[in-house]
Amino acid sequence: MRLPYADESDVGVDVTTHGRDAGRKLTTFDLTNLVIGSIIGADIYIATAIGSRLIGPASLIVWVAAGAVALTIALSFSYCAMLHPKVGGPYAYVNAVAGPFAGFMAGWALLLAEWLSLSVFPVAFVQYLTALMPGVEPMGQVGLKALFIGIVMVTNIVGIKAAGRANDVLTIVKLTPLALIIVGGIAYAAVQPNAAASHLTPFMTGGTADVGQALVLIFWAFAGFELSTLPADEVDRPESSIPRAIGTGMLVVTAFYLLTNMAVVISLDQSSLAASSSPLMDAAASIFSFLGGASSAVVLFVGAAALLSILGADESGTLGTSRLAYAMSIDGYLPHVLARLHPRFGTPYLSVIAIGVTAFIASLLGGIPALINSAVLLLGLVYLVTCISAMVLLRRSPGRSSSLRGRRVIPVAGAALSIMLILLVSADVMLIGLVLLAIGVPVYVLFSPKKELTELKEMFLSREERERWAHHQMERFLALPLHRIGTYLRDKGDH
């Protein structure tokens, strides 16, 4: 899951003034690459084989299903981008359809989802590091998480250029070991077909509830597709380019994920896979065991690449999330202190620190499954309201939307699938997520403009109710001095 979103301060701003030059519009090929790049990150190192622990090799089917779910929702995002060409993503779409309060809650849910996703990376980093360096005590693991978060915060505070350069370097190394494992897995199946076949038996090891949980955890690896749905004015021939790019990109990503997981599943027996906290390293050790002592070098390479990839994902995630918090504070939806810039580096350092510290705390309180479940719950809510926004925008612009294929079916299907993701989350995680979401209401009341608060009241109270409430307040406040006067006159009369 890649997390750098557009600044929310640009919500409602037409992209003709904020987008790319007319002569530099993105082609279908450009957008396809954007789809692939926005999805594939460190998630593959974290989510790979996570479903196998729940339902065995049948998880391979779930990877395909998760890709189909993501594709359907992503196409709904593309309709919003074409019909409402404003920067801001779900925040802008929901705001246009349901007003500022609903738009804020969509932005708040997105911010929480990103924050929870950032909390996953320190946990995963320590898991891979301890696989390379066994014997680290629990307190030492806490220290490693703190060091990990500290590096990310310092890099982001020093400046966006430094963070960008770091992420560029880390991106180069993240896919190489994955390609190595895929090729090695194919060779393993060809050379040792009996061993590979035995690792696929039994094919299904879990129940229905486990399938649902596997889908939630695996779907998280596909999150980030919304980054590819740029405003239509930035894309050449958007009506055909955006859906085609999303479809092609999703097929490539799903195939890549499927091949990686297949290599892991066929190279490890199910008991070893279930017990592994670093499945890609274990898969590399099994696949390249024929190299003898040299196989340890391959395992070390995969482990190092995993560490760097996870670090890079958190770098880019913190970059995007801190800018989202910064932009929302500029708009008056979060404490203004989060918009304070560093006097030397010009970065929103307090936003970076706040996100880093709270992500560190969350990483201590929850394991990877709980954090991912919470993130998917909030993402599901964001996706749901975006799909509903797509339905409304399509109905408002029948002329502009007439050429969009699947316009009547896809947003409805996307909303239904979003609800499914929400309902698949466990009850305790759902409660925690909803409590976090509910915190957004007093945040909105405290920091939003007074004009928007008036609009919020109008959403929940009819005119008659507001007049009745005002009359009640007037009577209540007038009654007190009248009561005091009456008491005084009675006491004087008694004397």
Descriptive overview:
The chain has 495 residues and is mainly alpha-helical. The chain folds into two domains: 8-460, Amino acid/polyamine transporter I; 464-495. It is 75% helix and 0% strand. It is built from 24 helices and no strands. It has helices spanning 15-18, 28-39, 43-47, 52-55, 59-83, 90-98, 100-132, 138-158, 160-174, 176-191, 193-198, 208-219, 238-267, 270-275, 279-287, 295-330, 349-365, 368-396, 398-401, 410-424, 427-438, 440-447, 450-460, 463-494. Helix 18 crosses helix 21 (427-438). The longest helix is centred in the middle third of the chain and has 36 residues, at 295-330. It is globular.
- Beta-strand percent range: under 5%
| Class computed from helices, strands and strand pairing | mainly alpha
CATH class of the largest domain: Mainly Alpha
Low-pLDDT sequence parts: 1-23
CATH architecture of the largest domain, please?
A: Up-down Bundle
The share of residues in helices is over 70%
Count of separate DSSP helical elements: 24
Query: What is the residue-averaged pLDDT?
Result: 77
CATH fold type of the largest domain = Amino acid/polyamine transporter I
* Number of domain modules: 2
- Compute the separation of the termini in Å: 81 Å
Topology order in helix (H) and strand (E) letters: HHHHHHHHHHHHHHHHHHHHHHHH
CATH superfamily of the largest domain: Amino acid/polyamine transporter I
Overall strand count: 0
The rough form would be described as: globular
Q: Which value, in Å, is the CA radius of gyration?
A: 26 Å
Largest sheet: none
